[in-house]
Write a structure and sequence with these properties.
Length: 223
């Protein structure tokens, strides 16, 4: 399956500047393996995508939503679930049946690597919040510098900046997720899923992963 979001919506923000390739991260790591922390960064981006996709799959099975997040459709999702990605796996916070999670994670991984790339983007990701904050600050500073210094004009400018940032942040946040903070997990293998709890004793799970070469990269290495 391929990503057809841009064809279906005609939205600029859904345009695929570069389609994900199965060997892209492995090739980058081979070429720049002298850079400290590169592998951990690449893993973190892939884990981040898997975290989002897992939440979407769990939501689908609970009947919370009908389709993955896009910039033209904002379906409801399960606000009781939260996640935190690391370079070794991700934590999933909230009431989740362990058996359901064990089925959802490989399903999410398979769907991502087979082409359902929109599953890597989620509207409640912290990336959206960060983009919104930077956008608001930038637009507010621009309004402050361009508009007269009288209080009325400055207040109006601040309001316009905040309203504009609110409108643009979801789309720009989705772009930032797609091309900066997530990557399709072609190099992740699931190691274990462990039931645990957070600092406040609330239920959570840790999905442990490891790095693996993609099948395409392995075949190339054997030639």
């Amino acid at each position: 399956m391929t990503n057809t979001a841009s064809a279906q919506t005609g939205n600029f923000w859904d345009f695929d500047f570069a389609l994900p390739q199965p060997t892209q991260d492995a090739d980058l790591l081979r070429q720049l393996n002298f850079l400290p922390g590169l592998k951990e960064l690449l893993m973190l981006r892939q884990v981040h995508a898997l975290e989002h996709a897992t939440v979407w799959v769990l939501d689908e099975r609970q009947g919370v939503k009908n389709a993955p997040y896009s910039t033209t459709t904002r379906p409801l999702d399960n606000n009781s679930l939260g996640g935190l990605s690391t370079d070794e796996g991700f934590y999933l916070y909230g009431q989740v049946n362990t058996a359901d999670l064990r089925r959802a994670v490989p399903t999410a991984l398979g769907r991502l690597t087979r082409g359902e790339w929109d599953l890597a983007v989620h509207p409640r990701c912290g990336t959206n919040l960060s983009v919104g904050m930077f956008l608001t600050a930038g637009l507010a500073l621009g309004a402050h510098l361009l508009l007269p210094r009288s209080p009325i004009e400055q207040i109006i400018g601040l309001g316009i900046a905040a309203a504009t940032a609110t409108q643009l942040a979801p789309d720009l946040g989705a772009l930032a997720q797609r091309y900066l903070t997530t990557s399709i997990p072609f190099n992740l293998a699931i190691e274990d899923i462990i039931a645990t709890s957070d600092l406040w004793g609330r239920p959570s799970h840790f999905v442990q992963v490891r790095w693996k070469e993609s099948s395409s990269a392995s075949k190339l290495a054997q030639l």
